[in-house]
Amino acid sequence: MAKKKTLENFYSESGNQVPESLKSGIGHFNVFKLDEFAGPKAKPMPFNRREYFKISLVTGKSRVHYADKIVNVDKHVFVFSNPQIPYNWEQIDEQLTGYFCVFTEAFFHQYGNLLGYPVFQPSGHPVFELTDDQVDSFTPVFKRMFAEINSDYAYKYDILRNLVFELIHSAMKLQPANLASNMHSNASERISSLFTELLERQFPIESPTQRMQLRSPADFAKQLGVHINHLNRALKETMQESTSILIAERVVKESKILIRHTNWNVSEIGHSLGFEETAHFSNFFKKHTSYSPLKFRKAEII
Predict the structure, then answer these.
(1) Are 35 and 82 in contact (CB under 8 A)?
(2) For 20-76, what is each residue's pLDDT tens digit?
(3) Is 174 in a helix, a strand, or coil?
(4) 185-298 has which CATH code?
(5) pTM of the model
(6) Which Pfam families match (predicted)?
(7) Which sequence spans correspond to the domains of the chain?
(8) Class of the 7-181 domain?
């Protein structure tokens, strides 16, 4: 997989001047019309991770690839992209229209934890297919972003942060039932939250020399300072799955990404995911997907 794409790369490849805010290292925000980037002569976007956040509102037939998932879009889609998850966009219609904004985590310094919101979490739901009415409710927010960023108002970036939060919360309201499990109010939920943080902190795997360190339920229990049975009960209560299943699901997800989108051999992938023997990794992958790693790499399997 290619190295993470920076905002400097994004501006250079799109023919725009790199803003001074990036050169100085302070937080950055910008908003664009999609039409200029997704026309008939648009270059394909490689599948990789970006070092920035992105919120996209897109109209037109397309296919969104993120992590190990593919979403076919017939009309409208709203997508939240974060630096932890690789993605790309496959354009089907000759011309896509819409808007997108890009920003760094530093732009929200002292204004909240972006990765705490489900739409930006690896286990969350970052892709929303929209109706015409829903698109009409989101479009004015992007238009207000253009108005503010081009204004001389001294506190315009505070308004822009609020508009980003408006997009986040409006999207999350589209599926309130699925977000209830992300509220942390008791001990089991706090343990589950810490477990998830420890698990996700080990990803993405970006080099064959990088290795997953916490691999077993016992590893996580020791790191969290709880008995393994306590950890398992907490996860069963809040996430309806055992510790071992949750670890396995995340390892399968990362293994699909590495098999499909890198040229690493099976041995390198297995080692990076904590397997001592290549055969153990191959058996694990086949057990959870019904395919061998090599067959999965060669086939068009979602």
Answers:
(1) no
(2) 766 666 689 999 999 888 767 666 666 677 889 999 999 999 888 887 778 889 999
(3) coil
(4) 1.10.10.60
(5) 0.64
(6) HTH_18
(7) 7-181, 185-298
(8) mainly beta
